[in-house]
Amino acid sequence: MKVLMLHGINHNMFGKRDPKQYGTITLNEIDAGLRSLGEELGVTIESFQTNSEGEMCERIHQGYFEGVDAVLINAGAWTHYSYGIRDALAILTVPVVEIHMSNIHAREEFRHHSVFGQIVTGQICGFGAESYLLGLRAGVSAARSRA
Length: 147
What we know:
Blueprint: E1 2-7, H1 19-22, H2 27-41, E2 44-49, H3 53-66, E3 70-74, H4 83-91, E4 96-100, E5 122-125, H5 130-146
Parallel strand pairs: 1-2, 1-3, 3-4, 4-5
Helix pairs in contact: 2-5, 3-4
């Protein structure tokens, strides 16, 4: 089983960007934690990060053609306005789990709405880096229940 982890805009700056909100964990550390849990669950994790909306759409399309079993996405700010990424995700026929480190519902008003909400399998937010691990467990469970 292969799971695609998509990291969005500014996530390459985790560990430096707004430590009060996101802590000091880096993207490499998040990915290492996902790979470790993936090994326990018997799945392969492929991570991708970009600050380009078009590149994100292209990677989603590639995941479709590769036949990934589940997709995890923390699109960052794109969550709230990128209909292009939403439409790319809607092409997928596998479980898609939306992840956020912070509780987007307890932050600024514009962050309360996800344009992905109606098309994803589920959303996990507010648990810091643990949100990624919870998302992986949920995505793998949903993928296995479809098999």
